[in-house]
Amino acid sequence: MLQENRSDKFKNVKLEKLIFQRRLFIALGFVVIAFLFVLFKLYQLTITEYGTLLSSSQDNQLRISAVLAPRGLIKDRNGIILARNDPYWSLTYTPELAENQEYVFNWLLENNFLDQIKLGDLKALILRGLSFSTFPVAVLSEEQTAIFAVNRYKLAGLDVSENLYRHYPYGPITAHVIGYVGAIAPEDNTRLDLTNYLMDTRVGRNGLEYYQEKLLHGDLGRSTFIVNSRGRVIRDFNIQSDEELATGSIIDNIPPVDGESIELTLDIHLQELAYSLLEGLRGAVVAIKPKTGEILVLASSPTFDPNPFSLGISQSEFDLLLYDDSRPLYSRATSGTYPPGSTIKPFLALAALELNLIDQETTHFCSGSYSLPGNDHQYRDWLETGHGNVSLSRSIAQSCDVFYYNLATDLGIENISSFLRQFGFGSNLEFGIGVTQSGILPSVEWKRDYFSNPSDQTWFPGETVITGIGQGYFSATPLQIAVAGSILANRGTYVPPKLINGVMDVMGNYRTIASGEGYTLDINNEHFETVFNAMDMVTHSNIGSAYSIFSDDEHNVIGKTGTAQVISIGQDEEYIEEDIDENLRDHGLFFGFAPMEDPEILVLAIIENSGSGSRFAAPIVKEVIDSYFEDLSSDEEEVLALNYAR
Amino acid sequence: MQDKSFFDEILGDKIFLFSFLLLAILGLFVQFSAGAQTIVSIESQGIKVLVALVAYSLISRVRINQIKVISPWLYLGAILLLLLVMVVGVTINGATRWIDLFFFRFQPSELAKLALPMMLAWYIDYRQFKLSIIDFSLIFLAIFLPASLIYQQPDFGTSMLVILSGLAILFFVGIGWRFIFGLLLVLLIASPSIWQILEPYQRSRLLTFINPSSDPLGAGYNIIQSQIAIGSGGLFGKGWLNGSQVQLEFLPEQSTDFIFAVIGEEFGLVGLLILLSLYFLMIGRCFVISINANGTYSRILSASITMFLFFAVFINIGMVIGILPVVGVPLPFISQGGTSMLTIMLALGIITSIDRDRKVNLE
């Protein structure tokens, strides 16, 4: 070896160098392996895992913030707003903007914007979030907003943001129809597309707000921002390289789509009137335009204020409503089932006329009670002394029970139920505003299906007798009775009831909502005339059961009173109102429509435990009908005035 | 070898120079992107590159025998300075590593990095390669004295580098395989007690190395973000100044310890391969010089410097790509900061001097 160093004096120089070089090559091998390892890992990261890591890098920087669309408005038939979105002020806190967090928190405590518990929650939230996030602190009253505004200069980090909450200007008057909104509940998962909602979005919890949630909610908008690692929005960073365009992750803004506005058929003035008449009473009022099915009034009393629900009602407040014996949350007009009582009599008269069992001349003798052949059970007339010889017109005018006991027996339960079914009894009138009940239209078949015990399934002739005066198993909702009355008023033409006139989107496009199919019953028009004339006597003949109320009627109202028994009175007992528990007393009913020749409006009122229908129900119906025609004429005057001005 | 080129005469080794300049320039570009993106922000780094270049050139012209003679004194000086740091050291971010010399801050651990292999090479040469068990004990002591002084500063990364390059020397002097495996066994047995003396942050680094997703926003954050940066760069990268991980500061320590990931994100796999090739070229050149080096001192020292360079590169890259635990060491020539660059350039100066010595002897 030429290059042997002169200083290497010892003998094993060659060995030393050999060992060294061998070790050096081993080390080189180690270095090469390490480099290969690095290359393998780099290949893995940049080639194999490229896709997932690229999307991770985009997830890092893209922050999607949802923009809530204002909920659709709800208006009455004249465009008066019944549900709207009002602004409220909410205090927010952004840690990164704060100069002195302790000072801010102390200030919030001292001024009662927050209590210790809520402050603790806020601190926990801040610890978990990004420093540039904004956290909600409190909902501010007007006074608090003013206090904050004055002190704002020393409270860096706090800000006030404007949000919307649902407000119902008519509050209790529309509560049962419109319902209310509340926080998203676990069960909403199945009925709503929750990706279209924010965590704290208020959704319809009842009534129209619930059933028309899809229309009212609209669509969430999405703004996509680029943020840095501290969550601060970086706007000018250009991300749209070819690759990112190819993977579809461009920055975009999807604007929110406002919820659609709903125009109801309701007339809020009539609705207000109905509620003022129901004040202090339990019951329902329904007003409907028979020709179009438009519902003008849908009132249930008692009622509640839906507004506290919008910003979150406390459990104790809610419990007060929930456990109130008078059940204010309950929509009596659509869900309450009552025996129709004597209001069913015009329908039965019509049935008997149609089947030629009676004519205008037919009379039945009323002795004050009725018995089936071979049975000594006495079915009483409300008039103990009896009505004597009663014709059809008098049977309706004075509401003679015995006449209808006879009629029911002659008709038979099958004829009764199949005839009444055509008027909507026993079937559900679901029309998208809330829970509706179908009531019970009794029949042999119904009883067989309804009872599980075979001994209860047999239909007795006596049950047919009391069906004739709308008692027994028979029950219907106020809405059902009103709809049946409308078919009568229309002389056999059924127009499905509707509450929604139309829907308007943000662009102002108006569309009507189709209601179900109508139909016309094949009933002799003369028979309607016969029944109408009899009902005319109810209101306009001095023997009529509601004559005292309609003596000064200007709108040609005809109708029928009804008294629905809550309990049955024993064979030898007497119904003495004062002796009976108030909530076991009879319900008073009345439905009437006007004008008789060409009915435009039908109103039904049911007042629970108020005794005879003429006492409370009939005056309410009269008031509503009168008001309807007054409004109409004043509207006409307005139109005339407008035209004149033009 | 009559004609000596300009580079040989003035600047030293062509390969070192070529690789260093390319790496340093790449480093300036990457630091520009990862930092404030102003010329001012990389000015001082540029000056440091020039200083390192001058230091390299000067050292490479010193005869290796002169270097050899001062080795033990340099080592002694390094130990004393490490002790002095404990007394008058400047504390930055909880670590006491610097002595303030008013015009610049001197870091004795960097001197120790260099002085230890020199000292060991000198000692082995002095013992004429005949090493008894006492010699080995002394060598161990010589390694662990500076290593433990550096460890308590604390500077885990540098003390690891010192220990590794010291142990590499034992390997090169032909220590028996039985001894090597014995040492590994001892380490394995001692690992529970080593675990005990580790700082909590070091333990969590080791734990997240094993499973980074165990704490994605805490200790595992760095490694997850650097892998995202490298992977999302793909083959060709997102382009200079265009890496979202870098520009939006998702990548931690992006101008210093994690700068490798910046190159990955903005220049892709291609950029990383060029970088690795340059390092491999330098390390390979060191190997060639070591293989051919004359005399025990030169051989041992050059081999040690070779491994030192390799460890510095590999530990940083391994940490950033997630095949080694997170240890705070910079990427040579690329990371911001001049001290480690100066140390490595001085080492390369020494190895160039060793090469010159061989060529002189050849003539």
CATH topology of the largest domain in chain A: Beta-lactamase
Supply Rg of chain B: 21 Å
The computed structural class of chain A is alpha+beta
String of helices and strands of chain B: HHHHEEEHHHHHHHHHH
Largest sheet of chain A: 7 strands, mixed
Oligomer: heterodimer
State the low-pLDDT regions of chain A, or none.
1-10, 235-250
Number of separate strands of chain A: 23
Figure out the total of helices of chain A.
Answer: 24
**Count of domains of chain B:** 1
End-to-end Cα distance of chain B, whole Å, is 7 Å
How much of the sequence lies in strands of chain B comes to under 5%
Strand percentage of chain A: 15-25%
Number of strands of chain B: 3
CATH class of the largest domain in chain A: Alpha Beta
Please give the largest β-sheet of chain B.
3 strands, antiparallel
Level of helix content of chain A? 25-40%
* Uncertain regions spanning at least 5 consecutive residues of chain B: none
Structural class of chain B, please?
Answer: mainly alpha
Average pLDDT taken over every residue of chain A? 85
Name the largest protein-protein interface in this structure.
A-B, 50 and 58 residues
Description:
The complex is a heterodimer of chains A (646) and B (363). With 646 residues, chain A is α+β, with helices and mostly antiparallel strands. Chain A has three domains: 13-48; 65-259, Penicillin-binding protein 2a (Domain 2), CATH 3.90.1310.10; 268-306 and 313-494 and 527-636, Beta-lactamase (3-Layer(aba) Sandwich), CATH 3.40.710.10. Helix content of chain A is 37%, strand content 18%. In chain A, strands 2, 3, 4, 5, 10, 18 and 19 form a seven-stranded mixed sheet that branches. Chain A has a five-stranded antiparallel sheet with strand order 12-11-23-22-21, with helices on both faces. In chain A, strand 14 (369-370) and strand 15 form a beta hairpin. The longest helix of chain A has 36 residues, at 13-48. Chain B has 363 residues and is mainly alpha-helical. Chain B has one domain (6-362). Chain B has helices at 6-11, 14-34, 39-60, 64-88, 108-126, 133-151, 156-172, 177-197, 200-210, 221-233, 244-247, 259-292, 296-321, 339-362; strands spanning 90-92, 95-100, 105-106. Chain B has a three-stranded antiparallel sheet with strand order 1-2-3, with helices on one face. The longest helix of chain B has 34 residues, at 259-292. At the A-B interface, helix 1 and helix 2 of A face helix 7, helix 10, helix 11, helix 12 and helix 13 of B.
